[in-house]
Design a protein that fits this description.
This protein is of the alpha/beta class. It has one domain (about 5-255): Spore Coat Polysaccharide Biosynthesis Protein SpsA, Chain A (Alpha-Beta Complex), CATH 3.90.550.10. About 45% of the residues lie in helices and about 20% in strands. It has eleven helices and eight strands. It has helices at about 20-25, 45-50, 70-80, 95-105, 130-140, 145-150, 165-170, 180-190, 210-215, 215-230, 235-255, and strands spanning about 5-10, 35-40, 60, 85, 90-95, 115-120, 160, 195-205. An eight-stranded mixed beta sheet has the order 3-2-1-4-7-6-8-5, with helices on both faces. Helix 6 (about 145-150) packs antiparallel against helix 8 (about 180-190), helix 8 runs parallel beside helix 10 and helix 10 packs antiparallel against helix 11. The chain is globular, with a radius of gyration of 17 Å. It starts with 5 loop residues before the first strand and ends with a helix.
């Protein structure tokens, strides 16, 4: 079985507390065909010093950018792998993830994208928000056309797609600060529905400085705006609005 090359993109800025774990989680996969690109926006903390230790194992781009989405697009345009993903600089892969991904795409040459589960962890790597995680797992058992309209139930760092899709769909929307991933899933859906695996591929970290932890109201506002770009039907828009209100209430209770 011929395994595909996998390109992992990490956008990085001032995550010195977490970046080593992120990098090590990719390099310790021992996947035979991995290309790892880290795009750093000239961090002012310890991040760049740590990344310099790995320059013989990663492709490091260190220059000013216009934010996370701009950094991601730089990496995506540089990538040469058959399969693409992005792993933020405070998240990390679980052992064996890339092998599972590579074998899946090798066995399913016509499948465009794949998504799986992820842990939700805090600054220390302790599992948190288990009810939210299990709820999203339940949603992903519904038809993708339904749950992708109702909410973004996709785990971003546990999602992989074929690089060839960029020839048809372009790259990430740099006007989006929070939900460039949701916009990308809805664009991928226009080609094909995802395959959903139950395994946990990654750990998604929420901490005091993360956008998902401190700016979730703004994130949900942008999320709804993205939905309306792709779904004009009033019933699905109303369902999405109602769902956002319920999730915001749940987040407030958990916090």
């Amino acid at each position: 079985m011929e395994l595909p090359t996998i390109s992992v993109i990490t956008p990085s800025y001032n995550q010195g507390r977490f970046i080593r774990q992120t990098v090590e989680s990719v390099l310790s996969q021992h996947y035979p065909k991995v290309e790892y690109i880290v795009v750093d926006g000239l961090s002012t903390d310890s991040t760049l010093a740590i990344l310099q230790e790995y320059t013989n194992q990663i492709q490091l781009i260190a220059e000013r950018d216009n934010g996370q989405t701009d950094a991601l697009n730089k990496g995506l345009r540089l990538a040469t792998g058959d399969i693409i993903c992005w792993l933020n600089s405070d998240d990390y892969f679980l052992p064996g993830t890339l092998q599972q991904v590579g074998e899946f795409f090798a066995r399913h040459p016509h499948q465009v994208w794949l998504t799986a589960d992820c842990l939700i962890v805090d600054e220390r790597g302790k599992t948190i928000q288990e009810p939210i995680r299990y709820y999203k797992r339940l949603l992903r058992q519904l038809p993708a056309s339904l749950y992708l309209g109702m909410t973004n139930a996709i785990c971003q760092p546990a999602t992989f797609w074929r690089r060839s899709t960029h020839e048809q769909l372009g790259y990430l929307d740099e006007s989006l600060r929070y939900t460039m991933d949701y916009d990308w899933w809805l664009r991928l859906k226009s080609i094909q529905l995802p395959t959903v695996m139950k395994q946990s591929f990654t750990a998604f970290r929420i901490h005091s400085e993360s956008k998902g932890g401190s700016q979730f109201i703004d994130q949900f506002d942008e999320d709804y705006s993205v939905l309306t770009r792709h779904e004009s039907g009033k019933p699905i828009q109303l369902l999405h609005q109602l769902h956002n209100k319920l999730i915001i209430s749940a987040y407030r209770l958990l916090k």
